[in-house]
Design goal:
The structure holds two protein chains of two kinds. By secondary structure, chain A is an alpha+beta fold. In chain A, 36% of the residues lie in helices and 18% in strands. In chain A, strands 1, 2, 3, 4 and 5 form a five-stranded mixed beta sheet that branches. In chain A, strands 7-6-16-15-14 form a five-stranded antiparallel beta sheet, with helices on both faces. Classes of the chains: A alpha+beta, B mainly alpha.
Chain lengths: 560, 130
């Protein structure tokens, strides 16, 4: 270009051809460059065609599936059965300012959702607010029908509903949630923060409950409650080695799906919050303490020929034999006199210490907030020692009793009761009595069923052991002998204890079949037997012929 | 020479146009596949939500109380007695053996006659005995 500007105004004869030549030369260079590039590409193409191409990895594309969102983790039983889940629902609201004819629209809406009342809807739609809730938690088909009305003032908000597919079953274990899905009872309340933790919502809570066992227990207790017109009932099935609770029932119960109008009585958890004087089942602990301390031996005995007078009351036997009784006889015939005398030999301090060691003097540490504190005398007098030896003057919850019994039969290891599935729970246990004492207690419990007051709990083939308990209910200034708390605590199989089954009936009435009796051996023992017959096959406990030799020596000390 | 240049030019033009068309086609195919993947992801999400509902429904329908009601209504089954339970199925006398019974998959499970031989099903008893 510089040449051109220099030669302005002159004939350009020389510079013009040289410009074309320059351009041509430059073009040739470009063409050559292109040719070289094409040649390289051609060579590369041929090379690629000849050589086997190295496998080319396709770019990995992560396809993001939008996750199903829910605000509260599921609750499962020990086998993975769903006990509580959260489902997406739609909640209907309206903007009344956009509604011209509230009367007509209210009628249209009630035609689709018949559970609503026309008057209430009309009142809401005529209000001056900009936002009114019409109905929470619509099902998909209800939502579709409302949409089909084609009313633009109706809007939906995505909502979530807590659903308990098993209804009343395990209601007291699970508890319930309020309208904002906040846990208000049971494990829903106890584990509320972890269940509603959004980062952890995919991890379901695995309970130790087995819904089949839970049902067998609830079904049998309901039947017994109806048959004996009891005011209430409670039951517990516990794994004696791990402390896991497989079933926990309190009757009357409630449906956690719909808690509106449920009475406090139905919400009350009799298995953990209710504390009862449980009667003779406590003799098991008196025997365990005395045998473990070496104060008595199975071959010893006490004179139970006449009632004992203590302070202002007298200790009688419910099944009086009026003679000297050996220790196995005191246990199988449930002699209050014998147990009371043994407790005096044991001493108040040792008795109190032993019961405290078994966790019977402090609230159960189970994962529920509905836990009742035991009631026992502030000053442990001589009379207290005697009555507590057979389960009067001390009130504990069925859960505490089941824990304590598990400890004395499983080889002496007290494991904390738990509602969470954790077969490693036994590690948290501590030894409370010796293996040998535990073996003796197992023999006594088995004989109480095969020969004593618990005969009606004898589920043939499953080697059941157990102890009846019948206590009069305390009323102002004494005890009411017509209002009973009848219970039975069973353990099976007795040669290798696996499960403890406890059943309690509150104020049962005797019937023709029980000859008018309403004691634990008559009304609660059959419940335990039926529960064992129904659940043992599910829990993998095979029936077998009993090894009589295990109990022969002790059985010989019992005279019919 | 002129002819040659004309030929080369038109060849280049055709190549360019067809290459462009091919690239457009490719782009559209990719877009279609992307949409398909998106739709699949959405469907997986919907199915997962539906599975949650179905699982809840299944838990409800197989709740022990409901199963017992159905059993009382349609089956003449009684709770098993201890004497009816065996630890080892070999103890059953004259028990048929073979692939059908002792198959590796479900050894020890005798299938119902109805399943094995297509036998007739007897109508459910309606005496409610349970």
């Amino acid at each position: 270009m510089s040449t051109l500007t220099l030669n302005v105004g002159r004939p350009l004869e020389i510079s013009r051809p040289s410009g074309i030549a320059l351009a041509r030369n430059r073009l040739v260079v470009a063409v050559l460059l292109f040719c070289v590039a094409f040649l390289v590409m051609a060579a590369r193409t041929v090379e690629l065609g000849i050589n086997a191409a190295a496998p080319v990895k396709a770019a990995i594309r992560q396809v993001a599936v939008p996750p199903v969102e829910f605000g509260r983790a599921d609750i499962l039983d020990r086998n993975g059965e769903i006990l509580a889940t959260s489902l997406e629902t739609a909640s209907l609201y309206a903007d009344p300012s956009q509604i011209t004819d509230p009367g007509l629209i209210a009628h249209q809406l009630v035609a689709v959702l018949p559970e609503l009342s026309v008057a209430a809807i009309e009142a809401k739609l005529t209000s001056s607010k900009k936002f009114v809730w019409l109905k929470k938690n619509l099902t998909p088909s209800q939502k579709w029908k409302v949409n089909a009305l084609g009313i633009p003032a109706f809007q939906f908000r995505r909502d979530e509903e807590r659903l308990y597919p098993h209804g009343r079953l395990a209601a007291h274990v699970l508890g319930f949630v309020d309208i904002d899905n906040k846990g208000l009872g049971g494990v829903e309340h106890f584990f509320n923060s972890s269940l509603s933790d959004l980062s952890n919502v995919k991890h379901a809570l695995n309970l130790s409950i087995d819904i089949r066992v839970q049902y067998a227990l609830a079904d049998e207790l309901e039947a017994a409650m109806r048959a004996y017109q009891a005011k209430g009932a409670a039951g517990v099935v516990m794994d004696v080695n791990t402390g896991e609770v497989l079933g926990m029932v309190s009757l009357p119960d409630f449906d956690p799906n719909n808690i509106r109008g449920v009475s406090n009585q139905a919400l009350f958890n009799r298995a953990t919050k209710g504390v009862y004087e449980l009667g003779s089942t406590f003799k098991t602990f008196t025997f365990a303490a005395a045998l473990d301390d070496g104060i008595v031996d199975l071959s010893d005995g006490y004179d139970a020929s006449k009632p004992i007078k203590v302070a202002r009351f007298t200790i009688h036997d419910d099944h009086p034999k009026n003679r000297f009784l050996t220790l196995p006889e005191i246990f199988t015939y449930s002699s209050n006199i014998g147990a009371a005398k043994m407790a005096l030999d044991l001493g108040a301090d040792r008795q109190q210490k032993f019961l405290a060691e078994l966790g019977l003097l402090s609230p159960s540490n189970i994962e529920l907030t509905e836990v009742g504190a035991p009631i026992y005398p502030a000053t442990w007098r001589k009379s207290s020692t005697m009555t507590i030896s057979y389960g009067h003057g001390i009130a504990v919850s069925p859960m505490q009793l089941a824990s304590g019994i598990s400890a004395v039969v499983n080889g002496g290891r007290l494991v904390p009761a738990t509602l969470v599935h954790n077969s490693d729970n036994w590690r948290y246990g501590k030894q409370v009595i010796t293996q040998d004492t535990s073996r003796k207690i197992r023999q006594l419990l088995r004989l109480a069923v095969s020969k004593g007051t618990g005969r009606r709990a004898n589920a043939i083939g499953y080697r059941v052991g157990g102890k009846t308990g019948t206590a009069e209910k305390p009323v102002a200034g004494g005890y009411d002998d017509r209002a009973l708390i009848s219970s039975f605590m069973g353990v099976y199989p007795m040669d290798d204890p696996q499960y403890v089954v406890f059943a309690l009936l509150d104020e049962p009435k005797g019937t023709k079949e029980t000859f008018g009796f309403a004691a634990g051996g008559w009304v609660a023992a059959p419940v335990v037997r039926n529960v064992i017959l129904r659940t043992a096959p599910l829990l993998g406990i095979a029936p077998k012929k009993e090894d009589e030799g295990l109990y022969q020596k002790v059985a010989l000390m019992i005279e019919e | 020479m002129y002819q040659m240049r004309k030929l080369v030019t038109s060849l280049a033009a055709i190549t360019a146009i067809s290459a462009g068309a091919a690239v457009l086609q490719l782009k559209m195919t990719v877009q279609e596949k992307t949409d398909e993947v998106q739709a699949l992801a959405q469907k997986i999400h919907d199915d997962q939500a539906a599975i949650r509902v179905l699982e809840a429904e299944w838990a409800y329908l197989t709740s022990p109380r409901i199963l017992q009601e159905r059993s009382v209504e349609f089956l003449a089954l009684m709770p098993p007695k201890a004497t009816q339970i065996l630890r080892d199925p070999v103890a059953i006398p004259y028990r048929p053996r073979g692939v059908d019974v002792d198959g590796a998959k479900d050894a020890g499970v005798v299938r119902p006659v109805a399943v094995r031989a297509g036998g007739k099903k007897s109508p459910p008893k309606k005496d409610g005995s349970l």
